[in-house]
C-alpha cells in the first residue's frame, strides 16, 4: 500500500485564515463531494456528530 504522505503537492498551498483554528479559504472540494465524505464518516461505528469542541 502506498502512503499518500509520499506524494508531492501539485501547485500552491491553499490560502487559510491567519489565526487558530485555521480555516481553508480556497481549493475546497465540490459541495457534493464534501457531503458524501461527511455521510460516509458519520455512518462509521462510534462516530458522533456534534458541535466542534475547538471553535
What can you see in these coordinates?
The chain is mainly α and 55 residues long. 22% of the residues lie in helices and 0% in strands. It starts with 30 loop residues before the first helix and ends in a 13-residue tail after the last helix. The mean pLDDT is 89.
What's this entry about, in short?
The chain is mainly α. The chain has one helix at residues 31-42.
Proportion of helical residues: 10-25%
How does the overall form come out from the CA principal axes?
A: extended
User: Could you report the average pLDDT, rounded to the nearest whole number?
Assistant: 89
Any idea what the radius of gyration is?
A: 15 Å
Instruction: Note the run of SSEs as H and E.
Output: H
Structural class: mainly alpha
Most strands sheet: none
Estimate the strand proportion: under 5%
Tally of separate helices: 1
Total beta strands: 0
N-end to C-end Cα span:
35 Å
The poorly predicted ranges are: none
How are the SSEs placed, and which strands pair?
Elements: H1 31-42
What descriptive keywords fit this protein?
55 residues; mainly alpha; 1 helix; extended
